[in-house]
User: Which sequence fits this backbone?
């Protein structure tokens, strides 16, 4: 499936969509400190801690007047990027989402979670070893959470597994957890008070991926970026473009 990282970043952009069946979240670990969702909601006067269904809840199965699906076949759909798909507040709604993913087997769905310990309590009855069209990204930010979350993630029945090291706030060794991983994404933190991202940490994770034949993607620099021992402060609008310029995806 495309989410498995065999597809380059630019190619994925051409075939992606989003689906946020609910919005709102709660800070869960140290990686949430400068969460973009909370920051954006604060500016708009929205309480992020209130988790609510959105008007797009049924987006994957909405149809046009002629009876065709509005979401075109063949896309990768990024799910719940304004929340966490496994958040407790959404337990009563999640079953319908699994049904829609099952119905739309012509789409590839991808969601991230920091709550991977809840996974087995949240899957549908017919999950077995996973849906072919669903990929899961386990988000980590430091070695402590890598050891805890990936220790769980490694043993879960999921056909397509990604590791998302974003925001990466310290050096991490992933070597023990890269079996059956299709893609590792690394990115820095975005905020004027962001914790720095050292480029050496990025390169070390990249080498771990190469050694284990895992795809690697450097998604964005951090606002405070260290390279060759020198510290830089970058504009938010340049974080992704500067990462692309490094040209180290593999």
Assistant:
């Amino acid at each position: 499936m495309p989410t498995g990282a065999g597809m380059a970043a630019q190619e994925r952009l051409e075939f992606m969509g989003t689906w946020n069946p609910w919005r709102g979240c709660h800070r869960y670990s140290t990686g949430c400190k400068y969460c973009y969702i909370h920051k954006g909601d604060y500016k708009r006067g929205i309480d992020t801690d209130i988790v609510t269904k959105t008007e797009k809840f049924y987006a994957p199965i909405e149809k046009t007047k002629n009876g065709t699906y509005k979401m075109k076949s063949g896309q990768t759909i990024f799910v719940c990027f304004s929340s966490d798909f496994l958040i407790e507040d959404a337990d009563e709604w999640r079953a319908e989402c699994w049904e829609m993913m099952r119905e739309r087997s012509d789409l590839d769905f991808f969601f991230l979670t920091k709550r991977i310990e809840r996974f087995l309590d949240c899957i549908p009855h017919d999950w077995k070893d996973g849906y072919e069209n669903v990929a899961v990204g386990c988000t980590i930010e430091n070695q402590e959470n890598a050891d805890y979350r990936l220790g769980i993630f490694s043993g879960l029945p999921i056909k397509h597994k990604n590791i998302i090291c974003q925001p990466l706030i310290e050096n991490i060794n992933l070597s023990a957890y890269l079996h059956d991983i299709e893609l590792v994404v690394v990115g820095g933190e975005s905020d004027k008070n962001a914790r720095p991202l050292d480029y050496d940490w990025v390169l070390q994770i990249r080498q771990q991926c190469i050694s284990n034949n895992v795809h690697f993607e450097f998604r964005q620099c951090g606002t405070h970026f260290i390279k060759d021992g020198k510290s830089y402060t970058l504009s938010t609008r340049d974080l992704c473009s500067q990462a692309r310029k490094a040209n180290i995806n593999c």
Summary: Residues 107 and 170 are 35 Å apart (CA to CA). The radius of gyration is 18 Å.
